[in-house]
Amino acid sequence: MFDVNEILDSLNISIFDAIPSQTTDDDKRSLLAIQSAVREFCPHYVYLEIGSHLGGSILPHLTDDLCSKIYSIDKRPLVQPDERGVSYGYPENSTQRMLSILSQVSSTEKIITIDGETSSLDASVVTEQPNLCFIDGEHTDVATEQDFKFCLGLLSSGGGGDHLPRCLRHL
Ligand SMILES: C[S@@+](CC[C@H](N)C(=O)[O-])C[C@H]1O[C@@H](n2cnc3c(N)ncnc32)[C@H](O)[C@@H]1O
Given the CA of residue 117, which atom of ligand 1 is nearest to it? Predict the structure, then answer.
């Protein structure tokens, strides 16, 4: 359905048309560029994201044969606070709904969903070291710092202490 190589080579954000993503067009181009770099150095890369909503930011990885596994961590609240001072509503927010939407585009077999937030999750729930993490959950400073520390711990768990997954140390 999608020619992922062509999409990534041209940073063609029309791939996001299939499932809405709460990101700007510039975000989308950046996300595709990062995916392009990671898949070049890490064939069979593992993608982890915190905050998935309808699955829009998962889609390019779901349709990428070089992505071997996707972790989606999402607390699934109906309303979430935001550092900008307004609360954002997420009616009918559920993992089941996201999987149902994604399954209309591609098999969802490689997605592991984890309902929860990183402040109360043990990192051992992620059994394969990610090569790329995208933090897009609760947009507060406290939650973002917590999510960042969680991801940093996972990315650095391969040893070496330089906080980079093994296949990116050659960059
Ligand atoms: C901005 S949306 C994610 C958008 C998605 N990445 C996309 O591209 O469309 C934020 C998501 O974070 C989830 N969320 C809210 N608070 C969270 C928390 N503390 N931990 C993890 N996920 C959270 C919400 O359920 C919502 O799905």
Answer: 20
Question: What separation in Å is there between the alpha carbon of 49 and the centre of ligand 1?
Answer: 9
Q: Measured between alpha carbons, how far is 127 from 135 in angstroms, rounded to an integer?
A: 18
Query: Closest residue (by CA) to atom 9 of ligand 1?
Result: 21
Which of 30, 54, 58, 80 to mutate to test ligand 1, by most ligand atoms within 8 A of the CB atom? 80
Question: How far is residue 91's CA from residue 17's CA, in Å, rounded to a whole number?
Answer: 21
Alpha-carbon distance of 59 to 22, in angstroms, equals 13
- Ligand 1 probe mutation, 50, 61, 72, most atoms within 8 A of CB: 50
Q: What is the pLDDT of residues 71-124, one digit of tens each?
A: 999 999 999 999 999 999 999 999 999 999 999 999 999 999 999 999 999 999
Residue 148 belongs to domain spanning: 4-168
pLDDT of residue 157: 76
pTM of the model: 0.94
CATH of the domain at 115: 3.40.50.150
The confidence score (pLDDT) of residue 155 equals 92
Strand-pair category, 111-115 with 67-74: parallel
Q: How many domains does the chain have?
A: 1
